[in-house]
């Protein structure tokens, strides 16, 4: 019997098996046209059908209201670190940047090229664990063009589960590692962006959901056309040739999600998976997680061995047990289990079993 492998990579990350099999079966001859999907024009009627469905499925999944537009572009989330300020700074020429960890901090660093952003540090300590200040305590500034934050810090495994409620503020969210993991009230946001490779599909495409009226603003004159939301929108996300493969697979993932019960199904499943894993960590004095329960990520579960001398052994034995890519981020060390939508609960249970066995062996 083939050994079952579970992939805990943070990104590019695991995709649903069912989708991969479909891609494989269709790869040489898509829909009986005699060509692969990656060999045909993005403007062909065949590909346009794929695109149309991808918009339709996504709109349904996230209940995206009509006054919002959906763009698929390139350059990843980091491309948006530049695109957001260059498109949205228009009146006050500054913005609030919430610093909750690595990615939100780096989005601010990039924005500093275009303005002098207000950095708002929301990192805190609660009951000697890392936490994030509640949104009601975020000291936003009056005259800013938007507020930027990251609801799920992929590296630290820290999440902000609250939804923003800032009267009159345009809220921009980097949802790269949390999009489609839970329901969101799209109306609370001006711009939601996410690179695909965590919870959507293969790397190479970036999703943007934005309030249509934000297109009217005057943009930075140096804004590269390729990052200009107006241009991308006017050209139906095809100003330049899109990553057709990534877009196609993403569409299949959206469809797979709908078939399985949509966002509410995955939200419940993700919560259950994360809860099981944190319970395992908390119930032992062999493993430790340093994030306060109110800010723990449901997507990226970070943990450490109390005895760090066992780290290399843990990693080696985890791989021997078919549990791959648990190594934490290089800036952070320890371990990280990324358990996005595609990770079945059986994968989390296999990890928990391994952790129990390892502890028993080496305690
Ligand atoms: C992965 C990630 C990024 C970087 O994405 P790229 O597509 O590599 O630019 C940015 N923000 C968050 C929250 C991420 O998880």
Give your account of this protein's structure.
The protein is α/β, with parallel strands linked by helices. It has two domains: 21-259, Aspartate Aminotransferase, domain 2 (3-Layer(aba) Sandwich), CATH 3.40.640.10; 261-362, Alpha-Beta Complex (Aspartate Aminotransferase, domain 1). The chain is built from nine helices and 16 strands. The protein has helices at 17-26, 45-61, 76-88, 102-111, 229-234, 244-259, 262-282, 311-320, 345-362; strands at 6-7, 68-73, 96-99, 118-121, 123-126, 129-132, 147-149, 152-153, 158-159, 171-174, 191-195, 206-211, 287-288, 300-305, 323-324, 335-338. It has a seven-stranded mixed β-sheet with strand order 2-12-11-10-7-3-4. Helix 1 crosses helix 6, helix 2 crosses helix 6 and helix 7 (262-282) packs parallel to helix 9 (345-362). The longest helix has 21 residues, at 262-282. Pyridoxal-5'-phosphate binds next to helix 3.
What structural keywords apply?
363 residues, 7-stranded mixed sheet, binds pyridoxal-5'-phosphate, Aspartate Aminotransferase, domain 1, alpha/beta, Aspartate Aminotransferase, domain 2, 3-stranded antiparallel sheet, 2 domains
Query: What would you call the shape?
Result: globular
User: Helix and strand succession?
Assistant: EHHEHEHEEEEEEEEEHHHEEHEEH
What gyration radius follows from the Cα positions, in whole Å?
21 Å
Q: What ligand species are in this complex?
A: pyridoxal-5'-phosphate
What share of the residues lie within helices? Answer: 25-40%
What is the number of helices? 9
Low-confidence stretches: none
Spatial strand order of the main sheet: 2-12-11-10-7-3-4
Number of strands: 16
- What would the CATH topology of the largest domain be? Aspartate Aminotransferase, domain 2
C-alpha termini separation: 32 Å
Mean pLDDT: 97
Structural class: alpha/beta
Share of residues in strands: 15-25%
CATH architecture of the largest domain: 3-Layer(aba) Sandwich
What is the CATH homologous superfamily assignment of the largest domain? Type I PLP-dependent aspartate aminotransferase-like (Major domain)
CATH class of the largest domain: Alpha Beta
Q: What's the story with the biggest beta sheet?
A: 7 strands, mixed
Count of all domains: 2
């Amino acid at each position: 019997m083939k050994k079952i492998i579970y992939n805990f990579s943070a990104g590019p990350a695991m995709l649903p098996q069912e989708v991969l099999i479909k891609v494989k079966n269709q790869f040489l001859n898509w829909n009986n046209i005699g060509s692969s999907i990656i060999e045909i024009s993005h403007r062909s009627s065949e590909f346009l059908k794929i695109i149309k469905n991808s918009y339709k499925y996504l709109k349904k999944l996230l209940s995206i209201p009509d006054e919002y537009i959906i763009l698929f572009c390139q350059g990843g989330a980091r491309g948006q670190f530049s695109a957001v300020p260059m498109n949205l700074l228009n009146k006050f020429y500054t913005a609030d940047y919430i610093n909750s960890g690595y990615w939100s901090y780096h989005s601010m660093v990039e924005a500093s090229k275009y303005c002098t952003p207000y950095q708002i540090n929301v990192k805190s300590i609660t009951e000697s664990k890392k936490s994030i200040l509640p949104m009601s305590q975020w000291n936003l500034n009056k005259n800013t063009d938007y507020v930027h934050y990251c609801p799920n810090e992929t590296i630290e495994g820290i999440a902000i589960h609250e939804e923003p409620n800032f009267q009159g503020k345009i809220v921009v969210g980097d949802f790269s590692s949390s999009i489609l993991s839970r329901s969101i009230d799209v109306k609370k946001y001006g711009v939601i962006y996410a690179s695909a490779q965590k919870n959507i599909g293969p790397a190479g495409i970036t999703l943007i959901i934005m309030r249509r009226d934000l297109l009217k603003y005057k943009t930075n004159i140096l804004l590269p056309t390729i990052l200009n939301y107006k241009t991308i929108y006017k050209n139906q996300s095809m100003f330049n040739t899109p990553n057709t493969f990534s877009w196609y697979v993403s569409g299949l993932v959206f469809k797979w999600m709908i078939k399985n019960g949509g966002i509410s199904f995955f939200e419940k499943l993700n919560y259950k998976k994360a809860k099981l894993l944190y319970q395992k960590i908390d119930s032992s004095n062999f493993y430790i997680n340093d994030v306060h329960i109110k800010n723990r990520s449901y997507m990226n579960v970070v943990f450490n061995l109390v005895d760090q001398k066992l780290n290399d052994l843990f990693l080696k034995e985890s791989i021997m047990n078919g549990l791959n890519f648990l190594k934490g981020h290089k800036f952070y060390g320890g371990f990280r289990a990324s358990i996005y939508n595609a990770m079945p609960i059986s994968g989390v249970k296999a990890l928990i079993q391994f952790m129990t066995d390892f502890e028993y062996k080496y305690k």
